[in-house]
Protein 1
Amino acid sequence: MTQPVVSIRELKSRLSHYLRLARGGESVVITDRGVPVGRLVAIGQDHEGQIAALRAAKQIQWSGRRLMPRKPTVLIPAGKSVAELLIEDRE
């Protein structure tokens, strides 16, 4: 299933058509002189519904396993806040 790609001019002239596609669950890529600048998608779908739609479109896959916990990449010294560390770094 490919996403429809539409120029701004065509989108303006056939907006109702592309809104129907978005309501139907398709996402429409909007281009300006051939360069993608936006995407028209339906709203109101929760995250689980969005993930289910992506799975159905075979755009994502998941093994069902939980992710392994990651070690923090930055350790904050005891007694200091993140804001204080940012201020120190900027000085």
Protein 2
Amino acid sequence: MPNKKSAEKRVRIAERNRLYNRYWTSRCKTAVKKVKAFVDAKDHDGAVKVFNEAQSVIDKAVVKGVMHKNTAARRKKLMAKLVKSISE
């Protein structure tokens, strides 16, 4: 346990930030899993729709500082590659 008032505050802030980051990280992972599910089902129209939603969620996570922009770009690139693979 912290001994100083400022240390107690930092513990509270760290816990608040941890929950916030976990929420957005979980949202991103779920969005990617939805895209993979549509790709596995070979549903191109559904995959494109869910892919656009996933891109939006990932971009919001970047703006909020939860995810680095290069990580987001990599994940979007891989999802786009999956969606493109079922269009052919």
